TrEMBL record:
It comes from Micromonospora marina. It comes from the Bacteria. InterPro entries: Ribosomal_L11_MeTrfase_PrmA, SAM-dependent_MTases_sf. The keyword Methyltransferase applies. PANTHER family: ELECTRON TRANSFER FLAVOPROTEIN BETA SUBUNIT LYSINE METHYLTRANSFERASE. This is Predicted nicotinamide N-methyase. Keywords: Methyltransferase, Transferase. One of its GO terms (molecular function) is protein-lysine N-methyltransferase activity. One of its GO terms (biological process) is methylation.
């Protein structure tokens, strides 16, 4: 879908209307269109379509994304001069952090049309270039990406299964693969080693707590116990 199609214009208008540009709690270097009131926006999205509409993930900086964006911002050498893929980009937080840290190119992939609009608006607001793409690439590969980043993607079993397969293919093809995760149920920890951990401020209305302990993990391409 083209950037200026009527549908993407409508999505951009929706993002502007229901979220306001504000610094991210744990990565204040980045400003995003964020919703103040999670529940209200959720109901509105549901009410408008009366269907299995995805919740407005794009309107919040999830703990996993905040931790990963913090790590990328503090360790720019990870992405500097490299081609980066931010998978399940949501607001675009991690993609924007990578672009700010000097990535040669950043591709942000999402399955939610409004997230794609939010990524484009948020990249523009932060003065960086991010290529936002509406696609489900989990059964495919990471293309020419040298670094693959995924913030907060292990929250459902079905998603986690497909995600892990995709990320393992990318790691085995030579990419560095990092995820940010606040202890979601379906993260296969034995596949990863820890790079950093942070206490990340989150929306109490979304997470029932004010702070989530969040780990930045790097995926090991080989199964645990296998010889390298
Ligand atoms: C919890 S949000 C995390 C967003 C962002 N990475 C962050 O940390 O703030 C998960 C995101 O995954 C996206 N998503 C779900 N399935 C996907 C898929 N197959 N491919 C790409 N994105 C997907 C959702 O639309 C949602 O925006």
């Amino acid at each position: 879908m083209g950037h200026n199609s009527p549908v993407s214009e409508l999505s951009a208008a929706f993002v502007r209307l229901h979220a306001r540009l504000a610094p991210v709690a744990f990565v204040p270097e980045v400003r995003l269109h964020q919703a103040d009131e999670p529940i209200g926006l959720w109901e509105l999205t549901e009410g408008e379509f009366r269907s299995a509409q995805p919740p407005p993930f794009w309107a919040f900086a999830w703990a996993g994304g905040q931790g990963l964006a913090r790590y990328v911002t503090d360790h720019p050498e990870l992405v500097d001069g490299r081609r980066v893929l931010d998978l399940a980009s949501g607001s675009g937080l991690v993609a924007i952090a990578a672009a700010r840290a000097g990535a040669a190119a950043v591709r942000a992939v999402e399955v939610d049309e409004r997230a794609v609009a939010a990524v484009a608006l948020n990249a523009e607001a932060n003065g960086v270039r991010v290529d936002a793409e509406l696609a489900d690439i989990l059964d495919s590969d990471a293309g020419d990406a040298e670094v693959v980043l995924a913030g907060d993607v292990f929250y459902s079993e079905a998603m986690a299964r497909r995600m892990l397969r995709f990320l393992l293919r990318a790691a085995r093809a030579g990419a560095r693969v990092l995820v940010g995760d606040p202890g979601r149920a379906f993260l296969p920890r034995e596949r990863f080693h820890e790079l950093a951990a942070y206490d990340v401020p989150v929306s109490e209305a979304l997470e029932s707590v004010r702070v989530k302990h969040t780990t930045v993990w790097e995926l090991d391409p080989n199964p645990p116990g296998a010889r390298r």
